[in-house]
Amino acid sequence: MTKTDAPGLQEYLAEQVLLIDRVLNDWVPEETVEPASIHRAMRYSLFAGGKRIRPVLAIAAARAVSDSPDGVENAAATLELIHTYSLIHDDLPALDNDDLRRGRPTCHKVFGDALAILAGDALLTLAFEVLSRLKHIPANRKIRLVEELSQAAGTVGGMIGGQVNDIEGEGQTPTTLLLESIHRAKTGALLRASVRMGGIYAGVSGDELAALSQYGEHTGLAFQIIDDVLDVEESSEALGKTAGKDEAQQKITFPAVYGLERSREMAEQERLAAHVALRIFDDRAERLRQIADFIVQRKM
Questions:
Q1: Which helix or strand (DSSP H or E) is residue 104 part of?
Q2: CA-to-CA distance for 236 and 231, rounded, in angstroms?
Q3: What is the pLDDT of residues 166-224, one digit of tens each?
Q4: Which end of the chain has fewer CB within 10 Å, C or N?
């Protein structure tokens, strides 16, 4: 039995995706609500599929801290709003200029650049509205969640900063320093924030938050390494996005710096380090361990 076949993991992931999709459906206006065009564009990208790894990580982290963190799925869903907004913008002609995302035409190919930009803006804005309306936690935790999400999505060590480094790194000589500056921010920051937000929502202690942060850093790096490897090894049909785009655009990636074999070895090292980081939680963090395994062993 492989680690991704761990008892109940696929069923668990499927259940969490359904839960998150129900929450997102409740928060995002229906396509018939005016202005209908923007809501169609938002929902087109948001419900195009996807593994919902970030909100699933947040929920699993919350449940490692507390047995019953009521309403955590609402906080977790904000991570998917931010992630989808970033994908919409990343696919635009001015950035990665991609035609395919999650197996279907990208938002701007269907709705045009202007509505795609606004759909991303609207999802970003909605994420913070959702956090402001959380009902099951005190105000000080809401503030911490807003701070955590905004920093992870921001410019200093956050997603936008990483995207800037990624754009400016195109065509440059691949180096380990440039690679780390891109991916710890572009992908890693939001994945790290996912487990931290789950913990914060559930009333995490200082030691527990430190452990979740380490887990998030290792898992986030493993996620990006495998993403880079799959871009080389898998087809566009399997990935649901344009394969080989990183090499074509001369992006700084793990295979470009380390090669495929060493990149996979590094991902495995990060997976093992993620497991070690969770020792403080004992069996309560078993889902987090399984998700780290899934991230490293996935094929898409």
A1: strand 104-105
A2: 8
A3: 888 887 887 888 888 888 888 899 999 999 999 999 999 999 999 999 999 999 999 99
A4: N
Among candidates 187, 23, 5, 176, which has minimal Cα distance to 90?
187
Contact criterion met (CB below 8 Å) for 159 and 95: no
**Neighbour-count burial of 48, counting CB atoms closer than 10 A to its CB (0-12 exposed, 13-18 middle, 19+ buried):** middle
Structure-token match 């998150």, residue found: 20
Whole-number Å distance between alpha carbons of 92 and 41: 14
Instruction: Using the structure block, give the residue that is written with the tokens 């987090």.
Output: 288
- Distance, CA of 151 to chain centre: 14
Q: Which amino acid is at 140?
A: N
Give residue 151's identity as a one-letter amino acid code: Q
Q: Give this prediction's pTM.
A: 0.91
* Structure-token match 């939680």, residue found: 281
Alpha-carbon distance 15 to 21, whole Å? 10
Which domains does the chain carry?
Answer: 3-297 (1.10.600.10)
